[in-house]
Specification:
Elements (H helix, E strand, L loop, with lengths): L3 E5 L3 E8 L15 E5 L1 H11 L3 E8 L3 H12 L7 E3 L5 E8 L4 E6 L8 H6 L1 H5 L3 E4 L5 H14 L2 E4 L9 H4 L4 E5 H8 L15 E5 L5 E5 L2 E5 L12 H16 L1 H15 L12 H10 L4
Parallel strand pairs: 1-4, 1-8, 2-6, 4-5, 8-9, 9-10, 10-11
Antiparallel strand pairs: 2-3, 6-7, 11-12, 12-13
Helix pairs in contact: 1-8, 8-9, 9-10
The structure holds alpha-D-ribofuranose.
Length: about 300
């Protein structure tokens, strides 16, 4: 049976410009033509999980603008259930993204409808969350809605994955409901301090902390010890959504393959996502991940 993944989170149109280098504060630079991609951490993670073979339900909110229909059509094309996406007359979420030639990026999100996702919207999606094997959460929708989703999942035995991005202080009441935390080094420094190890976040219900290290792979912390996940070397052009690829692949495969193997799967998915421009446009298929796993690291 396919792993069932519910995602409660954001959905954005990403407006992307490529530049030779990221501008310094106060600097103006000329970039490429503007490109539009489907994004949003929640929607990206939903697509990443679907492309790994999971049955995915996405719970979020869009506005009444043109991008709303375009974004939802994209999720449908990946076979994602969007029946529990709420709509209103405001603007949908938009992210302004700069990608530099050296592979660095900056992202600023205008949350729009994402910020209007409510506890009632989450309650309306209760059945999808209760019937999931895994719930994926991020921090681009209101915390009260995120917490309610975690409460429903926890009570029904679904595994709760939290990607605390963008990083924000996490209440103990939320951490009590989370099984796995997956975050990057910048987020770890904000949440636990510049010199902290991922093990510092093994608190509340959190039994596993995975710190993604970009081109250096990842580290997985549990109370039993630490495991290093070596990187897959790829020709990176854009890091946008690499973390989302990792999260979606991990949630989609952890139950099926076990955490050890799922971490390698997630690492390969993250590496592949850096090889293409854009967010959902860059997310690999399961066949691509399996090929990279076969051809091995260093390819
Ligand atoms: O993680 C990448 C995503 O962050 C982008 O797609 C953007 O929309 C922001 O949510």
């Amino acid at each position: 049976m396919r792993t069932r993944v519910a995602v409660v989170g954001s959905i954005n149109q990403d407006l992307v410009v490529e530049t030779a280098a990221l501008p310094a504060p106060g600097e103006t630079v000329i970039g490429s033509e503007l490109a539009r991609f489907a994004g949003g951490k929640g929607a990206n993670q939903a697509v990443a999980a679907a492309r790994m073979g999971a049955a995915v339900a996405f719970v979020g909110r869009v506005g009444g603008d043109h991008s709303a229909a375009w974004l939802l059509d994209g999720l449908r094309r990946d076979g994602i259930d969007v029946a529990r996406v709420s709509r209103d007359d405001g603007a949908s979420g938009t992210a302004l993204i700069t990608v530099a030639a050296d592979g660095g990026n900056t992202i600023v999100v205008a949350p729009g409808a994402n910020w209007r996702l409510s506890i009632d919207d989450v309650e309306a999606a209760r059945s999808a969350i209760e019937s999931s094997d895994a719930l994926l959460l991020q921090l681009e929708v209101p915390l009260d809605a995120t917490k309610r989703a975690a409460e429903i999942a926890r009570a029904s035995g679904s595994t709760v994955f939290l990607n605390p991005s963008p990083a924000a202080p996490l209440a103990d009441a939320l951490l009590a409901l989370v099984d796995l935390l997956v975050l990057n080094q910048t987020e770890l420094a904000i949440l636990a301090g510049a010199t902290a190890a991922g093990s510092a976040l093994l608190t509340g219900g959190v039994s596993t902390v995975v710190v993604t290290l970009g081109a250096a792979g990842a580290e997985c912390f549990t109370r039993a010890g630490t495991r290093t996940v070596p990187p897959f070397l790829t020709r990176a052009v854009d890091p946008t959504a690499a973390g989302d690829a990792f999260l979606g692949a991990l949630a989609a495969t952890a139950k099926e393959l076990g955490l050890e193997h799922a971490l390698d799967f997630a690492s390969a998915a993250g590496a592949l996502a850096t090889t293409r421009l854009g967010a959902q446009s860059s997310l690999p298929t399961r066949a691509e991940v399996e090929t990279l796993l076969r051809t091995g690291r260093g390819g």
